[in-house]
Structure formats: structure tokens, C-alpha cells
Predict the structure.
Amino acid sequence: MLFTSWSFIFFIILLTCVNYILPVRYRWILFLISSLFFYALSGVAGLIYLSAAALIIWVLALVIEDRRNKGRDELKTVLADASSDEKKAYRQKIKKSIGVVRFAGILMLVALLFVFKYSKSLFPSLFDEGSGDGFLRFAVPMGISFYTLSAIGYLADVSNNKYGAEKNPLKLALYLSFFPALVQGPIARFGELKDTLFEPAPFDGGKVMEAALRIAWGYFKKIIVADRIAAAVAVLQKDPGTYTGMYSFLLIVFYTVQIYADFTGGIDITIGTAKALGVRLAENFDHPFFSRTLDEYWRRWHMSMGSWFRDYVFYPVSASKALLKVAKASRKRLGDGFGRRLPVYISTLLTWALTGIWHGTTVNFLVWGLLNGIFIIIGTEIDPLSRKLHERHEGLRDNTAFRFLQASRTVALTAALRLFDLAPDPMTTVKRFISIFTVSNAGEVLGGGFSALGLSVYDLVIIAAGIAVMFAVSFMNRDMSVYEKLRKRGFIYPVIAFALLIVAVIIFGAYGTGYDASQFIYNQF
Amino acid sequence: MDKMRKCASVIIVIAVSLLVLYLAQCLVVPKYMSGVLEGGMTREYYEEELPHDVIFIGDCEVYENISPITLWEEYGMASYIRGSAQQLIWQSYYLLKETFRYESPKAVVFNVLSMKYDEPQSEAYNRMTFDGMKPSYLKYEAVKASAMEDEDILSYFFPILRYHSRMAELTDEDIRYMFRRDRITHAGYLMRIDVKPMTKLPMAPSLPDYSFGEVCFDYLEKMRELCQENGAELILIKSPSLYPHWYPEWDEQVREYAEEKGLIYINYADKLDEAGIDMSTDTYDGGLHLNLSGAEKFAKQIGAMLIDNCDIPDRRGEPAYDRCWKEKSDFYYDMIERQKKELEEFGYLKSWTLGK
Amino acid sequence: MMLEKLTELLKGLHPEADIENEDGLIDNGILNSFDIVTIIAEVDDMFDVKIPASEIVPENFNSVRALSDLVERISEEF
């Protein structure tokens, strides 16, 4: 079920109504049933793999907890009088066995992800339906990239004793499959989600209105802005040979706007839907285009992903024995300066490589990930210079023009890097980017290029207006949510805003088949 | 009190929003007042004041080839043509069913060309047929039967969902006709006075299979039963257009069906001479459809058949009908003048077509 | 001793901050993930104590005192 469909809207309205009829302790069951239903609509087969993941983490987390508890008991009873060295050794043993279970679980989950997501790209011949050799035939199960990370996180957290293992496998199934977050996140953390998911908030009219407003805002961004640009982007990216120079620049601009509107809009619908049901999901975006550095950008864009890779890859890798050894050696060989930084750079690149791979199955995503890592590293290397600059000019840091410059630079960098999404071959992207500076076709593009991309003046005006509104809203909710600001003015203001958004989406949305007057010409021949 | 105030203000917001959407809808809906007029025909039926004794139903071969004014002048016959662009047989069935809700004609004349289409053809033509139809459960059934794959049925009832993108291309016609429409037909007849003689028609290719689809016979049977239930006689015709080609094999199937069910079936495409129809002066598009002079000739011909076979009253002398049809005649002759003027001035019918 | 060494370490990474008195090193965005990882490597080098990733939480890094307590705790536990 697509977010932008009548059936989804009907589905969530119905669900919200039923939700508040049920007593709190049964509502998670409703969530589970509706999530499984939602999931099943996109292919029942996928449910099997989801169940497998849930089963794996349910069993293994319980095993881990069991071993830990047994270990503790042993220490208290049998080994109470043992020497501290013996105790230490025993603790290590328990830790190791827990680590083995965790490793096995992560391995299984990654294997599942690998088989269903990556094997088609890596071993295309196995899937070759044309030649008849292929015997593997399946679609990527919905949400597997997201729920795999959620599952791994849960297992890691339990093995680190962050919280107790969940005894009810169905609750874990819900954790992995909660439908609002299934398609594009945010990536859930069991510790954050369990209270709100299994004991959602009671009915609160204000919260439901806030949720409705948020959902409407999401639709506004997706249907009016993102979907309008989508066709143009599709045309621009399809033919890198023709669409060069100014077209490439347009592609960067349009694609950035499209992804922003589509992704943040989708997340608004996600968080809004959860909120309407009384469940609190974590934010995934925090004014990303206001970021001053690339590093800051990744703490504001797709936040649940950034923090997941930081907590479950970057830190563990950095704190691992292997890397600490490297750190010691590197400090010895390369000195206190670069020698200290090198190990961090190694784990940074490794983390970003994995981030890239997670994003997509083709090489371009790996390149994208590594480039992000490299630019972050460059940023760190430049840091001493920038510090000197700020020492010399004290007011610079808070100067509005300077901040604008920094933000523009970050937006430009991330927008350019995002180009790698659009072609499976990294060289195509590089060529495309370079052509911006080597091909001069600005006149042609600004003359009639837009209509060739299917964008009329009307469309461009709407897109510009949409961007202005998105910017205004983003600016307005820096300190307080727009809903709260409206509510303060009066009960009716959020309702008016909601109505405005819905009416705008219906009238200005880029949905349905367009009106092609030529189709209406009645002709016989 | 506070709760009441809150409720009231919410209701006001909803009402205003619906009003805005309604106005936007009136603005963007295609008006069919120029260029492509065909979409505006279905809605004109509801403006008729007096019942009709004959209903013609079918595609362009009925709404272009018959003049109801001539039928009135020659026979005092009160008729209406419920036609639409490329009207498919299930659309004819549902439009006919709707018609029977409003009146009980003595005869229903159906052009059988649409038997050749056994599946939905075009979303645009579906729109033109149904945009003017009043909302009802019948409309829902009709739309469902006609819908192409992926068609959004909801948008037939809330046209703003289909036409909102026209916001980008509004013309002053859209503003002028936001709340009203001009009349474009004469009891369902779409007038063309220009002439384009028939020269050579394309060769009719031989088909692999001439049998009509099951679904077409189903709907034909349904129409027959519908007419029987409502006390109307169903008459099948093949209108005197020479293209698209009406194959003898098709003719045979309809003839068989008519014989079996005791219906009249006449192939007028074979009887042009009888009516005096001359394809060098009586057609406006080289033989596909008749122009005004052709439509008047065919009306005389088919009117005579109807008088002979059915009990159609002559309504001349009834004051209400005289008044009503005088008004229609005036409009008819007025349009003839207007079309003549345009032909003189521009060489083609500017307001009634898309161009030369 | 440990506290002083750690204070020195943190000052080296961020001379502009008031390390001795600051109790929001993480919450106020003074230390970023780079810094944390550097600290872990340094702590391993200086005190032969391995801070596990599971201990990388704001509470342990928000002030130099909290960090010192963490290092002591780990070195005594094992």
C-alpha cells in the first residue's frame, strides 16, 4: 500500500478509530495485525523472512539473557569464594559465549539481508529468467534493510545488558514490522520504542489533531512538490549523454528538492500516523539544510541511520581490540598528530563504506559512502586551520552571512554527492558532474529546456512556492512546532491549516493522469 | 458553550473548504463549449422538459446523422438522441436505463456499430460520455463497466481529482462557463453544415474473426429486456455512414439475432439511394458522418419507418409540445445561420471544430 | 592523577572549552564522535583500560569527572 493512495488514508482513519476503542494493553495486538496486513499486501512471501528475523532475535536474546543470568548465579554461589583472577576469567568466559551468540545472530541476519537484497546484483546469472538458467526468483522483501538493522540493534543491546530480552515473540514481530516505519524508517531502537509501542498513549484530541496536521504536511510535500519534480528528474537522469551541462546542474537541484520533499514528507506521514495511534517515533530530520558542516549534516539528515551506524558500527569498531592495536602502532609510527587521527579515519571509512552498501546494491552507493567519509576526514584535517580563522575573527562564527555561506557550501556538497544515487556506474556520475563546467548550454536550457522536461511555467511556480513554504515552515518550527504555535493562537488555527493543506493538495497536487487535450479529440481515422 | 463554539468553527472550516474545492472544480472541469463539443452532450438531456416518444441511442452515427427537428416538422415526432462519442454498448445500456427513469418512450432506436467493441477503448471517451451524467448508483455501475484498467472511479464523482491539472491551462472559456453551459445540441443532434465530399474510403481489411464478443450480445439482450419491461419497442439499425466499414459478416450476426428475437433490424448503409443521400454533398468528413442536409434526409427516411412500424403519436397541435418544439426549431434555424456566417467568414466552422 | 591526565587529554582536543567545570560535553555538542573515539584510544594507551562501545553513552562522557569514574570502574571490574 502506497502512502499516497486512497486505500492508505482510509486504512489509517479506520485504524485510528478502532485503536481508541480498545483498552491500552491490547492495542499493540491491533498494531501487529494491521502491520502484518499492510506487509502482506506487498507479498506474503516477505512475511516469512520477517518472521525468521523475529524468531532469530527472540530466541538468541533469550539465550544471551539466560547465559548472563546463569553466569551471575554461578559467581554468587559456586564461585563466591574464588580468587579475583578466577572470577575475572569466568566473567571473560561468559562474555565470550554471549559474544558468540550475538555474532551468530548478526551473521544470520546479515546473511538474510545479503541473500534477499544483494545477491541479485552480485550474481545476476542466478536470476536470469531469460536464459532459463536462473532458479532464484524473488522480490526484495519490503523493509528488509530497515528491520535487519533494528534486529541487529536489539540483539546488540541485549548482549550489552541495555535492557532485558523480550519474552513475547509477537512483540518482537511488531517491533520489526510496525507499518508506519516499515518502508523508510526511522530505524527503530527497541529501548526507545518498547514503552510507547506496547503501551501507547491514551486518546488526546490535541495529539490527534497535531498528527493529522503533520500527515497533511507530509502529503503537501510529497504530492505537490516531490511528485511534480519526479518526472523531470526521471527524464534528466535517464540519458546522461544528452542531458549534460546545465541539465546536470538542474538535475542536482531538482533531485535534491525531490528527495528532501519526498523523504521528509514520507517521514512526516510516518511519524504522524504513529502519533495518531498514540505511538511516539523518533524524529529523523532536524533542519538538515541549515547544517554548517558535512559532519553536522549527518546528525540532522536521516538521523536514525546516522546514529545507528555510529552506535553499532563506528563505536564498536573504534573500541575494538584490533583497532586499538592499530591505534597504538599508528601513534608510535606516525606521531601524536596524524598518528592519533589515522585509526579514527580507518573506522570512519569503514563505517561509511557500510553505510553506502546499506543504501544500495550497486557500486555507486559504495563510492558515495566512501566519498562522504573522505569529505568528513578532510573536514577534520582542515579543522585546525578553521580554528585559527575563528580565533582571528571572533564574530565570524555567529555572523549570519558566514553561516549562510557555510550552509550553502554544505547543501552544495551533499547535493553533488547525492548525484551518485542516480547512475549505477560511478564514472557516469563523475562525467555528468564535470560536464556542468565543460558544457555550456545554459541558453538552450533556460529557453525551452523546462518544457522538454514536462515542466510548464505553472509547474515551476508551484515548485518555487512549495520550496518557499517548506523553507518558511522549517524556519518557523526551529523553536516550537508549528502545531503548537498555531494552537496557541486558538483552537481553530490548526484546523484551518489542515484544511488549507488538504485543499492545496487536491487542487495543486501532481497526481492522477494529466489532462492531455489531444486525447479528447474525437477522430475516426 | 465552548464545545459548541469549537464544533461550529470546525464545521465552518469544513464548509469553506468544500466550497473552495467546489469552485475550483467548476473552474477546471472541461467545458466542451468549443473545439471538442462531444463531451457536452450527455448533460443536455436533463434539460428536456417534455417526454419523448422516440429515443435514439448510440455513437456518433446517431448524433450526427439524424435531425430531430426534421422528425418534428415532418411527423410531429418528439424524439431525443442520447448519443456520445464512441458510445460503447454497455454505456448505451446504462444511459438507456437511466432514460427509462425519466420517461417511457414508445420506441428505442439503437445503432449497432458499437457491437464491434467488446472492451473499453479510451479513458478520454469514457470521460466525455460520463462527465455529464448525473451522479447515481447507475452511474457508478456504468463507470465500473466502462473503466479501463487503472481508472480512478472516485474521480467520476469528484471530477476535481481528474482535472485539477487543468489549473495550468485555464482559458477564459473556463471562467465564462464556470456555472452554466450554452446549449450545443438540438434534442441531441450535433449540427454540422459544412461539406467535404467523400472521395475514396480506406480499404476494409479482412479480419481474422468476425464474431462479436459475448459481452456485446449480453448487453444487447439486456437492452432488449429493458425495453420490453418498459413497454418500448427496440429497433436495431446500422446508420448510413460508410466508414468504419460494416462487414457483411457483422450484418449477418445482427440479422440473425433480430430474427430470433423478433426485432426490426435495418441496415441503412445499404439504403442511401432510397433516402436520396448523396455522399458528395451530404457529408462533412468524407463519408464518415452526414452533415445537416444528410441528417435531414435520413430523418425523413427513418421517421417514415417508425411511423409505419410503431404507434408514434403526432404531437403537433398539443400546445405544450408546439411551444417546446417551436423554441427548438428557432434555435435550430438560428444555428444554421450562425454556421453559414462562419463558413463564409472563415471558410470552416471555427466555433464548432478544432480547426481546418 | 587519572583526573588530571584526562583533563589534559580533553583540553588538548578542545582548548576552547572549560573542561574542568563543563558537565555537558556531549549534550552541548562539545565532544563529537571523533573525539570520543580518540579518547577511547588514548585511555587504552595511557591506562591500559578498554572502554567497550556499550559504555559510550552521554552519562559517561558529559564531564571529565564522569569519564574518570568510568575508567576507574572498568579497571576495577576486570
Remarks:
- The longest helix of chain B spans residues 319-346.
- Chain B has a mean pLDDT of 93.
- Chain B is about 45% helix and 5% strand.
- Residues 209 and 249 of chain B are 10 Å apart (CA to CA).
